């Protein structure tokens, strides 16, 4: 690679322009016009390469006009084009020529497909920043005005997103014009345009002078918030957040609050939902005083709204609302004005509402402190742990850490256990899957002893579940548990049970053993892998079922990096070679793969053994197999020095191996 | 629940294995559950305690002087709404309202001269009070109209009668649009159109007839109605992708288009090209494709010059991954070809048959089959025959390839028939194409290689330029720091 491209030898280097004879525009344009959409799309995605070949001059005079003229293509192609053009300034000669990019983007901003239009607007916004103030007024602002007064709604919709980027840098006269255009779009005939204007209202308000905000934006806001279409009204709620941040408390009370109060009681549930959904933002924007006077009562109404959607959205915000209350008096407000409503929601008729609440309610315990939690919240937690809907129970269990910090988990463990056991055996496998994922977290909080006593058997039962996804998750769960509790625990509780399954009459269970070994070997380290797991894997190479045999090959490949040369050479290699001669095609294939992987590994080990005089000096002492290894880490490096295992535990391990052996033969 | 949960070992006994394997509950079970679902209106809330209804005397028993007064009283009585989600409350009052509504329906349809000017206000007020409501959120957020049973309107026992009454009112010989337009105005129609999103098909069916009558009787509202439908469709296509009443609205439009005067106004053409054609991209096309195709064909029957833009539009939005939709598109193309004029056909034959050639070689046999069925259509065959010199070269490659490679024997058989037909149309051309087939393939391959070469060169150039930039920056740096670097 070094010296391959000598600098400054290319013929076109001086001018920076492309070589005309090599890349005639016709050829390139042919590519952009190819009949096959996919090829056309590929070409557009590499438009920058084409522009580079043409040089800045010809990109401006030939390529861009072509692109502007031929904008009638599949939306996918147009989307790619809109995206490319946003980063094209350098390719047309820098900021001085950025305005050359406006014509094609202007056409793109008028197409029907929303995705394309949005992307064109995004690119236009990007390019607007590269314009000088003069160029902005000469080229960009006229474009915005053209779009804003376009015939078809699409161009007017696009214009809405461009006002805020050109306003701050425009002269006062132009500013007035821009405001005028925005005003007329806010009362456009087409609801699509009003929606676009409403959704940009907040953004536009932020770049306006405060006086204009009060005199112009607020009336627009009030109008949009009482639009006949609820889809427009609900967008005004979003704008409310931005506008409220700009105004003083008095102005806020006089100009915005009447509208917000009205929105919270709108006849359309969509608008009320929006208020609930944006509640935290609104709360922060209006400040503590108005929150107490207005928002809390509004929130109470939302919590008992007639539509479950609205109640659920509000329930989601309970924790944030409480957190954001001023510290002084917070506890009283929550206890008197929020908690009574929450208690109602615990027995709501709609499961989405209950589960929304369950996902945040635990967070209240840190805010309310130990005593209140025990007295008021704990009964709610316990009720939710017994809820008929599994999602509610899951949400409670998944947030146990919050409570753990405040009152410790023991308070809950009596109710927790039945809930966990029931979820673990739920008829829906997705529920079982979800609870498995919380096992490592639970294990950490409940402690090893409690876990061994109550939950370990569940974890082992999942390994023989009927659904593969559950067995798979259970396997990964074991790995995480080992990372948490350490290798010694693994050796005593998990590994023997996993290995026993190697003799199960059901081949799916035998395969589970292999899958467990795949993930556990890393967590357990060389010692256990070599002494306990490897013999079982090797033995399974003689299984009747081909699926098991090729999984043996895969497993051997997987655990190869953990084993030392002796094991690889003496034990793994012969077995793989035998599998390589298997009658089954797949077994042969995976055996071959494994053989080459093992061979590579052996070569590596060989090299490092030669390179170092004392191969085991550093590695063996480090005892680093106790350290759990992250999935991204290169497993090929660590054990390279570990040519000789630690012999101390050999006896004990042999004993276990024999136990396993006995139980096998007794089966 | 907590204390009686079985120990882990008994788990498999507690829940049968088949239940555990579940994944998906059986559809029939789900459907049975869903059928019972119904919804109340979202508007119905915190109305407080209801005034109990007291039965009024029968209209037929009243003297003709009193009748008008009583009629209005009854209309006002029917403005009171009841909560049907609560099936035990206000039973008596609900029954009184139902009986009254029945009586009102009967009254306006059997008596002449009862719809007097003073009654219009009360009539429209009663209708508005009952049917205009915020539709509740869908019970099933991923409601699939093709699979799932719709959620039915709980207050249907009353609402149905109100719609019935509304229709009788509109259809009554006494009905006078000139008076009614004071009450049935743009705002009224706007709210009516929003109801088309109702999940209850019974309601949408009534709405369809009602809107059709209004469109027919209120000339002043026609442009407004069309524009609002336009907006609903645009929102459906580009914003929400969800609106339950698309098929019903299209059905109304079908008859509206039928009545368009010639030459077509620009507004109508724009509606075709910018709304109806993009509508083909919708996910749930299957639900309203028949109505949509009908509208499109109506347009083409009115004005044949629209054929080219329409077909090009369809080709632009041709489905790439959804075979089911592809079959629908092919169906629509056949409907269009059925009415196409030979001069128009010439304008689009090339792009169209390139697409058809892709369709016949689809590995989805239904798509291939649908496209090959074009050759069973006499009129299309005659068009092909007239233009065989153009069409055969486009089709030949893929037909030849499928006849050798397609996995489905039915398709292969069909392709042989098509090849035979085409051969009979122009044997000479067919032979030429057969003999040049290989050369053609090779030329394509060569072109492919050239393209790759071109892009490789372009990439190299890009790399070189990037390197140059780097080097010049580096050289600058070297000069500044005064160290020579070869």
TrEMBL record, chain A:
Q: Which Pfam families match?
A: HEAT (PF02985), HEAT_2 (PF13646), PPP2R1A-like_HEAT (PF22646), VPS15-like_hel (PF22956)
- For whether the record's keyword set contains Flavoprotein, the answer is no
Q: List the InterPro entries.
A: 2AA_helical (IPR055231), ARM-like (IPR011989), ARM-type_fold (IPR016024), HEAT (IPR000357), HEAT_type_2 (IPR021133), PP2A/SF3B1-like_HEAT (IPR054573), PP2A_Regulatory_Subunit_A (IPR051023)
| Phosphatase 2A Regulatory Subunit A helical domain segment(s) | 99-282
Keyword set, alphabetical order:
Repeat
Q: Which Gene3D superfamilies match?
A: Leucine-rich Repeat Variant
Annotated GO molecular function terms are: protein phosphatase regulator activity
Compositionally biased, Basic and acidic residues: which spans? 610-636
Question: Is the keyword Repeat in the record?
Answer: yes
Region span, Disordered = 610-644
Residue span, Phosphatase PP2A regulatory subunit A/Splicing factor 3B subunit 1-like HEAT repeat domain: 288-369
Q: Where are the HEAT repeats?
A: 24-62, 101-139, 178-216, 217-255, 256-294, 295-332, 338-376, 377-415, 416-454, 533-571, 572-610
Write down any Gene Ontology CC term. Answer: protein phosphatase type 2A complex
Which family does the record assign? Answer: Belongs to the phosphatase 2A regulatory subunit A family.
Show the PANTHER family listed in the entry.
SERINE/THREONINE-PROTEIN PHOSPHATASE PP2A 65 KDA REGULATORY SUBUNIT, SERINE_THREONINE-PROTEIN PHOSPHATASE 2A 65 KDA REGULATORY SUBUNIT A BETA ISOFORM
Q: Could you tell me what this protein is called?
A: Serine/threonine-protein phosphatase 2A 65 kDa regulatory subunit A beta isoform isoform X2
TrEMBL record, chain B:
* Molecular-function GO terms, alphabetical: kinase binding; kinase inhibitor activity; protein phosphatase activator activity
Q: Where is the composition biased (Basic residues)?
A: 27-37
What biological-process terms (Gene Ontology) are attached?
negative regulation of protein localization to plasma membrane; signal transduction
Q: Where is this region: Disordered?
A: 1-52
Top-level taxon of the source organism: Eukaryota
InterPro entries in alphabetical order: ARM-like, ARM-type_fold, PP2A_B56
Low complexity compositional bias, start-end: 1-18, 38-51
Identify the GO cellular component terms for this protein.
centrosome; cytosol; M band; nucleus; plasma membrane; protein phosphatase type 2A complex; Z disc
Q: What does this protein do?
A: The B regulatory subunit might modulate substrate selectivity and catalytic activity, and also might direct the localization of the catalytic enzyme to a particular subcellular compartment.
State the similarity comment. Answer: Belongs to the phosphatase 2A regulatory subunit B56 family.
What is the name of the protein in this document?
Serine/threonine-protein phosphatase 2A 56 kDa regulatory subunit
- Organism the protein comes from: Ailuropoda melanoleuca (Giant panda)
Gene name for this UniProt entry: PPP2R5A
């Amino acid at each position: 690679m070094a010296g391959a491209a000598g600098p400054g030898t290319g013929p076109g280097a001086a001018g920076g322009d492309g070589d005309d004879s090599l890349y005639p525009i016709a050829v390139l344009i042919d590519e952009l016009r190819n009949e096959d959409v996919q090829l056309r799309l590929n070409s557009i995605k590499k438009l920058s390469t084409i522009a580079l070949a043409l040089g800045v001059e010809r990109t401006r005079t030939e390529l861009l006009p072509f692109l502007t003229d031929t904008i009638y293509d599949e939306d996918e192609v147009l989307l790619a084009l809109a995206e490319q053009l946003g980063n094209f300034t350098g390719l047309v000669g820098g900021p001085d020529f950025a305005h050359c990019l406006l014509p094609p983007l202007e056409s793109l901003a008028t197409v029907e497909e929303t995705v394309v239009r949005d992307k064109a607007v995004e690119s236009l916004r990007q390019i607007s920043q590269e314009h000088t103030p003069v160029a902005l007024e000469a080229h960009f602002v006229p474009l915005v005005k053209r779009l804003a007064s376009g015939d078809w709604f699409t161009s007017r919709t696009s214009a809405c997103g461009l006002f805020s980027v050109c306003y701050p840098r425009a002269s006062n006269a132009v500013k007035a014009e821009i405001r005028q255009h925005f005003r007329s779009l806010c009362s456009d005939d087409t609801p699509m345009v009003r929606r676009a204007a409403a959704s940009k209202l907040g953004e536009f308000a932020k770049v306006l002078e405060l006086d204009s905000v009060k005199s112009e934006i607020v009336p627009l806001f009030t109008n949009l918030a009482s639009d006949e279409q609820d889809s427009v009204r609900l967008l005004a709620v979003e704008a409310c957040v931005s506008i409220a941040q700009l105004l003083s408390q008095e102005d806020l009370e006089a100009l915005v609050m009447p509208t917000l109060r009205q929105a919270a009681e709108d006849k359309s549930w969509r608008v009320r939902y929006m208020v609930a959904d944006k509640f935290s933002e609104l709360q922060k924007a209006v400040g503590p005083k108005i929150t107490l006077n207005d928002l809390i009562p509004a929130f109470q109404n939302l919590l008992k709204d007639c539509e479950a959607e609205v109640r659920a959205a509000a329930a989601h915000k309970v924790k944030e609302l409480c957190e954001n209350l001023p510290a002084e008096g917070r506890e009283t407000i929550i206890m008197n004005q929020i908690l009574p409503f929450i208690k109602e929601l615990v027995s709501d008729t709609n499961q989405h509402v209950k589960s929304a609440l369950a996902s945040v309610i635990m967070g209240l315990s840190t805010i309310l402190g130990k005593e209140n939690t025990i007295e008021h919240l704990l009964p709610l937690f316990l009720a939710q742990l017994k809820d008929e809907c599994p999602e509610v129970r899951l949400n409670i269990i998944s947030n146990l850490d919050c409570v753990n910090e405040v009152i410790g988990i023991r308070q809950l463990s009596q109710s927790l256990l039945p809930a966990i056991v029931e979820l673990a055996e739920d008829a829906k496998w997705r529920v079982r899957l979800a609870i498995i994922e919380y096992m490592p977290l639970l294990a950490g909080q409940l402690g090893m002893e409690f876990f061994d006593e109550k939950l370990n058997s569940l974890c082992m039962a999942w390994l023989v579940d009927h659904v593969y996804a559950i067995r798979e998750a259970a396997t990964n769960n074991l790995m995480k548990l080992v990372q948490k509790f350490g290798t010694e625990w693994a050796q005593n509780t998990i590994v023997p049970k996993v290995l026993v399954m190697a003799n199960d009459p059901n081949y799916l269970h035998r395969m589970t053993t292999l899958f467990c070994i795949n993930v556990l070997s890393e967590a357990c380290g060389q010692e256990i892998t070599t002494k306990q797991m490897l013999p079982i894997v090797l033995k399974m190479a003689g299984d009747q079922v081909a699926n098991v045999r090729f999984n043996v090959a895969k497993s051997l490949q997987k655990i190869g990096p953990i084993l030392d040369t002796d094991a690889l050479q003496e034990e793994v290699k012969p077995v793989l070679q035998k599998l390589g001669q298997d009658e089954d095609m797949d077994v042969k294939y995976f055996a071959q793969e494994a053989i080459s992987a093992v061979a590579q590994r052996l070569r590596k080990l060989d090299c490092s053994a030669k390179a170092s005089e004392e191969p085991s000096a550093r590695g063996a002492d480090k005892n680093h197999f106790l350290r759990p290894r992250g999935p991204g880490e290169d497993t090929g490096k660590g054990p390279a020095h570990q040519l000789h295992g630690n012999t101390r535990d050999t006896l004990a391990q042999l004993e276990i191996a024999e136990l396993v052996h006995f139980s096998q033969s007794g089966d | 629940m907590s204390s009686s949960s079985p120990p882990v070992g008994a788990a498999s006994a507690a829940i049968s294995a088949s239940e555990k394997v579940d994944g998906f509950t059986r559809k029939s079970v789900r459907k049975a559950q869903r059928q019972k679902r119904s919804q109340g209106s979202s508007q119905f809330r915190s109305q407080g305690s209801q005034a109990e209804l007291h039965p009024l005397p029968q209209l037929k028993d009243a003297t003709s002087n009193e009748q008008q007064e009583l009629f209005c009283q009854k209309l006002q009585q029917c403005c009171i709404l009841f909560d049907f989600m609560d099936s035990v409350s206000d039973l008596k009052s609900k029954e009184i309202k139902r009986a009254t509504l029945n009586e009102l329906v009967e009254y306006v349809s059997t008596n002449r001269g009862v719809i007097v000017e003073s009654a219009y206000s009360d009539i429209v007020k009663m209708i508005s009070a009952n049917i205009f409501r915020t539709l509740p959120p869908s019970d099933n957020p991923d409601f699939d109209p093709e699979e799932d049973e719709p959620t039915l309107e709980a207050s249907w026992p009353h609402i149905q009668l109100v719609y019935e009454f509304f229709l009788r009112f509109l259809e009554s010989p006494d009905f006078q649009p000139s008076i009614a337009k004071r009450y049935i105005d743009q705002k009224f129609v706007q709210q009516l159109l929003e109801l088309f999103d109702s999940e209850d098909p019974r309601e949408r069916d009534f709405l369809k007839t009602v809107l059709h009558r209004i469109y027919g009787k209120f000339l002043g509202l026609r442009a407004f109605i069309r524009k609002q439908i336009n907006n609903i469709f645009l929102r459906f296509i580009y914003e929400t992708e969800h609106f339950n009443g698309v098929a019903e609205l299209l059905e109304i439009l079908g008859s509206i288009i039928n009545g368009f005067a010639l030459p077509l106004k620009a507004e109508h053409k724009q509606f075709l090209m910018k709304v109806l054609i993009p509508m083909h991209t919708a996910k749930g096309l299957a639900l309203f494709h028949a109505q949509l195709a009908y509208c499109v064909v109506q347009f083409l029957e009115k004005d044949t010059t629209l054929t080219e833009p329409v077909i090009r539009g369809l080709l632009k939005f041709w489905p790439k991954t959804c075979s089911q939709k592809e079959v629908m598109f092919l169906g629509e193309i056949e409907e269009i070809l059925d009415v196409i004029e030979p001069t128009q056909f010439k304008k689009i034959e090339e792009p169209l048959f390139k697409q058809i050639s892709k369709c016949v070689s689809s590995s989805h046999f239904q798509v291939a089959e649908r496209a090959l069925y074009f050759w069973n259509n006499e009129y299309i065959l005659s068009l092909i025959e007239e233009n065989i010199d153009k069409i055969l070269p486009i089709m030949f490659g893929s037909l030849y390839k499928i006849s050798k490679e397609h996995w489905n024997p039915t398709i292969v058989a069909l392709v042989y028939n098509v090849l035979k037909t085409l051969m009979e149309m122009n044997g000479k051309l067919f032979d030429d194409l057969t003999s040049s087939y290989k050369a053609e393939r090779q030329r394509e391959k060569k072109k492919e290689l050239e393209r790759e070469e071109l892009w490789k060169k372009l990439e190299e150039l890009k790399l070189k330029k990037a390197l140059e930039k780097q080097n010049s920056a580096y050289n600058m740096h070297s000069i500044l720091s005064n160290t020579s670097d070869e």
